[in-house]
Design goal:
Elements (H helix, E strand, L loop, with lengths): L1 H7 L8 E4 L2 H10 L2 E4 H16 L4
């Protein structure tokens, strides 16, 4: 499925990330050759970015 999505939207594994919350998600990313980030980490990272841009604490 990930490879199909990359082909459809003309993305390569080098510029694709899979954000997930299950070990199966991490396995799927590895099998597709894409980078993986845990959803919790992604949310935390982006909350901090939004807070920084809006000058509000997360």
């Amino acid at each position: 499925m990930l490879k199909l999505a990359m082909a459809r939207y003309k993305h390569s594994p080098q510029n694709t990330w899979y954000v997930g919350d299950r070990s199966e998600d991490e396995t799927a990313a590895r099998r597709a050759g894409v980078q993986f980030q845990w959803a919790e980490d992604w949310i935390e990272q982006h909350q901090a970015s939004v807070a920084e841009l809006t000058n509000v604490s997360p």
